[in-house]
Amino acid sequence: MPDSKDGSAPCHFCSGNEALTPEPIREVRGPDGRWSVRVFHDRAPVFRIEGNIERRGEGLYDRMNTVGGHEIVVETPEHGATLASLPEAQVAGVTEVCRDRILDLKQDRRFRYVTLFKDQGLPDPTLEGHSHSQILATPVLPQILEIEFRWSQFHFRQKDRCLFCDILRQEIQQETRVVDQNAEFVALCPFASRFPYELWILPVGHASSFEKDLAGPARVRALAGFLKSCLLRVEKISGALHMIVHTEPNLAARGWFPEWWKTVAEDFHWHIEIYPEIAGLRDYLGTEGFRYNPIPAEDAALALRTLAPGAEPLGPAS
User: Fold this and answer.
1) How far is CA 3 from CA 7, 134, 181, 275, in A?
2) Which of 8, 64, 65, 235 has the highest count of CB atoms within 10 angstroms of its CB?
């Protein structure tokens, strides 16, 4: 039983320690009967599935209950493995499970957004050192996503085109910030990146919903292979990273005004954002949201292009 932190406690996510976690919501099992992917509610959830939202005023301010979902997706029984190191078929299995959990949570009309994210190798006492992702279902839109939706809608109203499709066309034409691409997906370092070696994965064809776009097994496998390759590149920069999926909101949620999401299927483009964590290279200027990134996107893309799977990691002086 591998230790989770200081050598004294067993890892709750390892095979054989299932009794240390809540009952599974979903398990994927192989022909031998052993699980390969496992999903359960977080032991100390940020959002709880039980209860009602109960929006209420407090003078000028608003309150609501922290109703939602908080699930853990354990991506492998193997302790210490990363998602990038897993076989492509295993990455596809993880992707399929995450897709299904998002679709299921969006059946609950209390939830306006479902977030899928991964923190790998980050110094957080809640992490187990065992490869996993987290899924949050929330009664509100995350602030960054709300801004992204608004600008996507604004661009569409001005030009009758998807903002991200326009970005893809320009980046593919210019090539300077593209890291990898095939017939289905493109990986690029966005113009004026916020973070060093920030990498986005986008589908070439327009699609607003991660979970709906990956409806078929062939599409899941295609993303799994491309994502694995991108993560292998990023891990040569840093083994610590943050990854998040940006997908459309829950259109069935209660409380939306009809005009809010009238064009979201046309104006929004789902994508995956990956941020390597590099000591000393991520910084904020003041407290007003300004960011300082010393690695231009063009230089980051060039470096990541050279770091194809099998290449040597980038040296500390690079």
Assistant:
1) 5, 21, 39, 27
2) 235
